Amino acid sequence: MTDHVRPRPGTTAVWAGEEERRAGAPTQVPMVGSVSFGYRDLEDWMSVARGERPGHIYGRNTNPTVAAFEEKVRQLEGAGAATSFATGMAAIAGTFWALLEPGRRVVSTRDTYGGTSVVFTDHLPRWGVDTVLCETEATEEIEAEIARGCDLLYLESPTNPTLKVLDLARLAEAGRRVGATVVVDNTFATPLNQSPLALGAHLVIHSATKFLGGHADALGGVVCGDAEFVRRVFRFREITGASLHPEAAYLLLRGLKTLALRIGRQNESALRIARWLEGAEGVTAVHYPGLPSHPAHAVATRQMRGFGGVLSFALKGGMAAVRRFLPALRWAHLAANLGAVETVAGTPATTSHVECTPEERAALGIPEGLVRYSVGIEDPEDLLADLEQALAAARVRGG
Ligand SMILES: *Cc1c(COP(=O)(O)O)cnc(C)c1O
After folding, report:
1. Is residue 2 one of the residues assigned to a domain?
2. Residue 128 sits in the same domain as residue 40
3. Do residue 304 and residue 277 come from a single domain?
4. How far, in Å, from the CA of 89 to the mean position of ligand 1?
């Protein structure tokens, strides 16, 4: 992309990573399934192997379709480099294994994605990495814990499924002060709504499975940011092999082209639905950073350009009401994913924290009787009407 015209995100989402135009060449990035890439000249092959010349050798290391996907995300996040993984969890775990070693100390919060918190509680300790999980909204407690020593600061905002918001600039600064590597899971916000690198993070991670792909038909993960850190993460991934499949990269690339359209619509619809739910009968709490009633609304307004497509809410009557409410929804998949073009609903026990036992969810402060609602791109009037009738169905025998 030419330097003098820096495109806006909607243009970047469409063109980045695929702007090379050659006469007669396909306009679309092809799905290259080939495992290896051949050479006629040994010197040529060696110069690619030494990294002196661009090119691909073996699919576990690099692949042209996968590289186009990485480039698109790199530009969307304004990162120095990007590398990809088979899933979001592979990206998260791979980043830890690449950057940590025995004796290191990680500071994070209790409300990270369920799989991530299992890595913190079950796996990092086995490798001699000390992990401290702070109360998510206790900014001063997190800062104090960072000041006690921190090699890697791991943040997620907004959180899954209670939509808590961390002050990313303030915490990143605290991390940088003690020399920590600052890593942010930006899955919920997407690069359209939030730019953690501009707020001080070294690395940004996405489960591309969610909003980046947007169609719930491909798993993927991506890590981008400071080129030196990304290089270390890539070195680990190319050896351990959790590489993104080219077919998944192809689907993710196609999904990414409409990112700005989808996120714009989902931001608008989610805000409208959250406002409506706040006054709805039978709803006892609504969690959405765009609501003035959200405890960190001011922080969210400062660090986000839109509040995202996911909200959660509690029903009067608890889990019994949730059991009646969810199956009554007409325009929602009851499923574990989020960020898709279809609306998706579920509970923490079946979605974000399916990896945890009930005891672990309780210990993490994750309420069972909560509905997580990922707003799709349907007409919001239909979603509001659907919520209204499902709330009525939930009230029938409960109250
Ligand atoms: C889904 C999710 C992940 C894990 O991603 P996978 O692609 O399912 O491995 C990590 N973080 C957040 C916030 C998520 O929502």
Report:
1. no
2. yes
3. yes
4. 6
Residue to probe by mutation, ligand 1, list 109, 160, 206, 207, most atoms within 8 Å of CB: 207
Q: Does the C-beta of 207 come closer than 6 Å to ligand 1?
A: yes
Provide φ and ψ at 73, rounded to 5°: -65, -40
Range of the domain at 327: 259-398
Rounded to whole angstroms, what are the CA distances from 332 to 147, 204, 344, 375, 397? 44, 29, 5, 9, 22
DSSP secondary structure letters along 117-134: HHIIIIIGGGGT-EEEEE
State yes or no: is 210 an active-site residue. yes
Q: Do 222 and 119 have their domain in common? A: yes
Does 224 share its domain with 279? Answer: no
Q: Structurally, how many domains does the chain consist of?
A: 2
pLDDT digits (tens, 9 = 90+) for 264-315: 999 999 999 999 999 999 999 999 999 999 999 999 999 999 999 999 999 9
Assess whether the C-beta atom of 88 lies below 6 angstroms from ligand 1.
Answer: yes
Residue 61 has pLDDT above 70, yes or no: yes
Within this chain, do residues 244 and 304 fall inside the same structural domain, yes or no?
no
Residue type at 174 in one-letter notation: A
Q: Is 160 in the pocket of ligand 1 (CB under 6 A)?
A: yes
Question: Is residue 1 one of the residues assigned to a domain?
Answer: no
The CB of 186 under 6 Å from ligand 1? The reply is no
